[in-house]
């Protein structure tokens, strides 16, 4: 690999499944990855999200170990151990010391470049809709469940897709009917039947719309708003898909790697 890419520091804003898939792909080619998360870290697919380190301290997603760190020196120690540091609301001096020339925006909804606490020297790669490639950001990676999945746009915005290819993303999102504090009544990997109660958001029950396995579940004690995704079901034949990064996220991560290479070559 060219020297310019080996050891390249890259910031990933958002440690959900997409941000985690990108971190895994970049780490695999010897880049140094720092994940930035919010204190509430609302990623529901916690078994496959480095964001879970915010609440749990340390998580392992496939072959990647993520650790929560509360300072740049601890982040540097984690990187030396081959881990991915996950920082909550780092200061600008911390990110300046890290020295990333590239940032990946895996937040939802999209952060505007002005909202990012650090402006990378080379540019920003956005995962999914919300920003215009070639104007607001360097590139946008298409996350739509259609034939454009993973395609990198260097100008314009991705076109919304329709039906996903069969077997590509066999998951079903479950959203809160009202607002309140989330309390789980099951766990990730558990089999459920249609109508089973997954938890409560305040006084509103969260029920499984069909049979499957619990792939995602909001962390206990977090506040959810009406319409927010609080759970996700895996519709495959067993629970294995609850613990594996999906083909959807891997496709997006491949596009992110392409954009990073093009940015710095």
Verbal overview:
It is built from five helices and 17 strands. It has 265 residues and is α/β, with parallel strands linked by helices. It folds into two domains: 170 residues, Rossmann fold (3-Layer(aba) Sandwich); 72 residues, RNA polymerase II/Efflux pump adaptor protein, barrel-sandwich hybrid domain (OB fold (Dihydrolipoamide Acetyltransferase, E2P)). The strands form three sheets. Strands 3-4-5-2-1-6-7-8-9 form a nine-stranded mixed β-sheet, sandwiched between helices.
Q: Order of helices and strands, N to C?
A: EHEHEEHEHEEEEEEEEEEEEH
> SS-based structural class?
alpha/beta
Structural domain count: 2
Shape: globular
Question: What's the end-to-end separation, in Å?
Answer: 11 Å
Number of strand elements:
17
User: How many separate helices?
Assistant: 5
Spatial order of strands in the largest sheet: 3-4-5-2-1-6-7-8-9
The radius of gyration is 18 Å
Overall average pLDDT? 91
CATH architecture of the largest domain: 3-Layer(aba) Sandwich
Strand content is: 25-35%
Low-confidence stretches: 162-166
> What's the CATH C level of the largest domain?
Alpha Beta
Helix content: 10-25%
- CATH fold title of the largest domain: Rossmann fold
Largest sheet: 9 strands, mixed
Question: Can you give keywords for this protein?
Answer:
four-stranded antiparallel beta sheet, 265 residues, OB fold (Dihydrolipoamide Acetyltransferase, E2P), single chain, 19% helix, 17 strands, 5 helices, alpha/beta
Question: What's the topology here?
Answer:
Blueprint: E1 9-13, H1 17-28, E2 32-37, H2 53-56, E3 58-61, E4 64-69, H3 72-80, E5 84-88, H4 92-98, E6 102-105, E7 123-127, E8 139-141, E9 152-153, E10 171-175, E11 180-184, E12 191-192, E13 197-201, E14 204-207, E15 212-217, E16 223-224, E17 229-234, H5 247-264
Parallel strand pairs: 1-2, 1-6, 2-5, 4-5, 6-7, 7-8
Antiparallel strand pairs: 3-4, 8-9, 10-17, 11-13, 11-16, 12-15, 13-14, 15-17
């Amino acid at each position: 690999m060219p020297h310019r890419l080996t050891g390249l520091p890259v910031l990933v804003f958002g440690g959900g499944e997409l941000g985690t898939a990108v971190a895994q792909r970049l780490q695999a080619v010897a880049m140094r990855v720092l994940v930035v998360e919010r204190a509430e870290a609302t990623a529901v697919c916690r078994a496959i999200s480095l964001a879970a380190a915010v609440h749990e301290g340390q998580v392992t997603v496939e072959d990647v170990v993520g650790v929560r760190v509360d300072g740049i020196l601890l982040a540097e120690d984690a990187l030396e151990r081959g881990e991915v540091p996950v920082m909550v609301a780092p200061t600008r001096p911390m990110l300046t010391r890290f020295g990333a020339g590239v940032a990946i925006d895996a937040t939802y909804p999209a952060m505007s470049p002005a909202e990012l606490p650090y402006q990378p020297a080379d540019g920003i790669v956005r995962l999914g809709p919300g920003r215009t490639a070639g104007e607001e950001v360097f590139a946008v990676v298409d996350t739509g469940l259609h034939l454009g999945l993973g395609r990198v746009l260097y100008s314009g915005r991705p076109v919304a897709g329709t039906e996903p290819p069969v077997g590509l993303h066999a998951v079903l999102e479950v959203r809160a009917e009202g607002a309140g504090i989330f309390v789980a009544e099951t766990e990730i990997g558990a089999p459920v039947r249609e109508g089973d109660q997954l938890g409560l958001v305040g006084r509103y029950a969260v029920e499984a719309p069909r049979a499957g396995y619990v792939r995602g579940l909001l962390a206990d004690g977090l506040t959810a708003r009406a319409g927010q995704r609080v759970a996700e079901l895996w519709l495959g034949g067993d629970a294995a898909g609850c613990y594996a990064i999906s083909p959807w996220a891997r496709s997006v991560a491949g596009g992110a790697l392409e954009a990073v290479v093009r940015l710095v070559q």
